[in-house]
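Exercise 7.
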Amino acid sequence: MGVRLSDGGDELAPNADINITPFIDVMLVLLIIFMVAAPLSTVDVNVELPVATGTPAARPADPVFVTIHKDLSLSVGDGDVTLADLNMQLGMLTKLDFSTRIYINADRSVPYGEVMAVMNRMRSEGYLKIGLVGLEDEGSQAPGVAPPAENSAK
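Solution. The predicted structure, written as tokens, is:
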């Protein structure tokens, strides 16, 4: 806040300075209101979702499978292939039909980054319909939990 001292004259000159102190006070109050109100607007609601009972999609007549093995080697169909030659092999199998759905089989021990590297290689060529293959859950165990081993010692 600025103060202007007069030189003793009777007439005061107009002061053109803007006092922004009330503006800053209002902005700080609004900031506090939004900081308090923001966490209240994200409320978690507990919902029990129903289980999907639909039948799995029908398997195509001649699917194209890309398999990633434990040792990170690749195979397309029954033949082994390198990551560099993956798109060429897919092009021969699909006759360069980029709308063909390609299925990826990956071993459980394959790191997620390696699966993404294979998917990115296929996407760079133009194959955008990529599916991941997994086992059907029997409902007897939680996902990611190995079934109990049978006791062979009797």
